[in-house]
Amino acid sequence: MSQPIRLALLLGSCRRNGNTPGIASWVQKLVDARLNPAGTPKAFDIIPVDPTKAPHPYGPIIDGSRLPAQINDAQEYSTEAIQEWSQFIASCAGFIVVTPQYNGGYPGELKNAIDHLYREWRGKPIITIAFGGHGGGKCAVQLQGVYAQLKMRIPVEPVCLTLPRTYIEGEERVSTDGKYPDFLAQYVDAVGEAADGLKASLVSNESN
Amino acid sequence: MSQPIRLALLLGSCRRNGNTPGIASWVQKLVDARLNPAGTPKAFDIIPVDPTKAPHPYGPIIDGSRLPAQINDAQEYSTEAIQEWSQFIASCAGFIVVTPQYNGGYPGELKNAIDHLYREWRGKPIITIAFGGHGGGKCAVQLQGVYAQLKMRIPVEPVCLTLPRTYIEGEERVSTDGKYPDFLAQYVDAVGEAADGLKASLVSNESN
Fold it and tell me: What GO MF annotations does this protein's record show (chains A, B) (predicted)?
């Protein structure tokens, strides 16, 4: 029996008291249910990546004696943390990004995580679930420019979630406890279709 | 005699062995000469900000109990480092960003530095000197989207510097030693005009 295909779920931010961990847990459950139907062998393994924990390299690129694009072997990265990040991302067949929009763009820690590597991303499919008070679409557009530059594949349009103001400016938060707020229900189909697109892109790549 | 107007020169990256410190030093000299003509009292004070040193807050936003947009007083920020960053940025009348393009976007540490604050940026003018193997224009466009979201003023188009391949992929680097490579000469006028635009924007704001 073959190993499950590994997908990383990259959390754009782990700001304390933010909505990312809750929305990411909701996305993970939906995508898992869609790609691993009950009664079938597990085909996909979805691994959440918290920007504050290894293998995420955290922080900016400090050593730049060589550009990531010039590195062909993970052993050539300057620190063990980046070597580990490289090996992890290289082991993943595709990516799901769940990210807040910050000031019309992506969070810095997400961009740093991407920029530490280069060849590890190339040719792989990536889907984006962005969110914000107005849907996070500006963040998603900026990310798609970055993915394109890295020659990643973008099988579907980003899913953009509009959070009620009480979740942005007020006290309410999407929790990881499994009880998800009603406003997310309207996006269930879109996340499922994005998961289908990711799967189709992986399958089409394997058959190439 | 009035105090010089304070401008911050934000370095987008301090990757070791990168070109940012050298290009930033070249920009600082040009802007200083343009805004502080010989024989006149010093009108503008240009302060370089290295992302690896205070008052730059480094790293991502960790505490998010309140959004920067909800904070009206620097004392309300969660750490002394962010309070210091807030006070510094609040003390500046305008900004010059000198940044490399990374993978079609801005470096993560630059975005983190911006996202730590909110009201401190609002209404202030900002000019951008971006660079890369193809001029860094994609980075500049993404930054302008962020500035617009923050309701900053953008008095001039970004200046985009195309670095020779030997400065990107090879061993050559723009040094801070005051001997600048010939390829930069073609951009001297554009940087001077950007400085004029920044000054005009500051003056027009004062007269409002």
Answer: FMN binding; oxidoreductase activity
